[in-house]
Amino acid sequence: DEALKDIAKRKGLRFGTAVGSGKNQFGDPAYRALVERECNIIVAENEMKWQALEPARDAMRFGPADAMLAWASDKGMAMRGHNLFWQAEKWLPAWIAKEDFGSEPRRGAERLMRKHVQTVCAHYGTRIQSWDVVNEAVDPADGKLRQNALTRPFGAAGEIEQIDLAFRLAREYAPHAQLVYNDYMRGDTGSAKHRAGVLAMLAELKKRGSPVQALGLQSHIGSWDESADRGKEDLLQWRRFLDEVTGMGYDLLITEFDVNDRRLPADIAQRDLGVAAAARDYLDLTLSYPRLRDFLLWGMADHISWLQTWDEAPRTDKLPMRPCPYDAQLRAKPLRQ
Ligand code: XIL
Question: What does the record give as the reaction this protein catalyses (predicted)?
């Protein structure tokens, strides 16, 4: 079969996946070979997150991500950076909440942000050409910007200022890089508030002249909750959303594609066809935007998918999920076609 990266290339796209450093991904030669064959771009599943790079204050740990980057450049694969700031409080390094920012907390938070962006961007230089600068800033429950230990020191309504600063710092220390805001914005009708919140934030950042260049569409599609059957109505909403985003001048990327199959039948053949059908509807529309040039999966094969252990939305029958184009034996599934 023709490699996915070659099929993508004919459409003017790059194709890739997230890779984790565990023994069943980066540590598995067969899985690595699959990635090398199919992909021309990768991203670290966890290894470039702040928590991973600086597990304790000033204790930088670049090893795992560096090993992956060395492999990627050896095999001629580009690598994206994910991510500089993850706005959900529980994904910030725990030590940040215990920081004493002193009598001028805003200055203290700004200093810490600058040090982080400077250290990480200086370490990677031009080897990382695209950064998820801010991840998941909008609370899907109400569309408002999330607060965390870094936004609070910025004072009332400081969230947008903290995000704006994040992008300005990234521009300063990674002047060559594409700067991306990354979020999930599931296409189901239930997440209308989420999408509205993202649009409002992107509009505000544009107004402020913040150097955001693209919106990363995580694209964890499929059935997450009762309202999440991506029917025709959902796709219409999704098109309207993408039209607004591109209308503001932002580029698009698919950054973390997979299909949650928790509401599809247990029968494997049926389930795999259902996954492929959901993917086709979503991708036909989303890949039709010329501003979209990168398509990355969040894992190539079912057994390594984060969804196997993500307890927010499990299958009620507890069967292993089948969200990826390859199965646990690295055999191609209908989604691959
Ligand atoms: C996930 C990883 O896959 C897991 O291994 C980790 O425990 C939690 O994070 N959105 C994102 C990714 O932006 O960073 C998340 O990755 C999946 C959802």
Answer: Endohydrolysis of (1->4)-beta-D-xylosidic linkages in xylans
